[in-house]
Amino acid sequence: MQRYKRREKIKYANLIGSIAAAREVGISLRQLYHWVNVFQVVKPRQRQCGMRVFKGFTCEDIECLKGVKQMIDQGYTLRAAVNRALSKQNHFSGDSLEKT
Length: 100
Hints:
Number of helices: 5
Oligomer: single chain
Distance between the termini: 51 Å
Largest sheet: 3 strands, antiparallel
Structural class: alpha+beta
């Protein structure tokens, strides 16, 4: 049992919590949850501690959120910024729908 808990800590050690992620991106916690739940900009990792569920964000998630924030600051709507960010993610990961 002790070994399992140790793995659990190592697995989630490099994740950033919701409050820290929102501060780093420069948005409110409410905005962060809206972007994650409604627009599904990123999919945070979840860990359960008793009855509570904590969301954790990777560095890649933070960079994606910063990109969306930057596009919004440039005048894009949230939907357009999310669509561009998701299309860039698909392009870089090789999952692009357009194949030539």
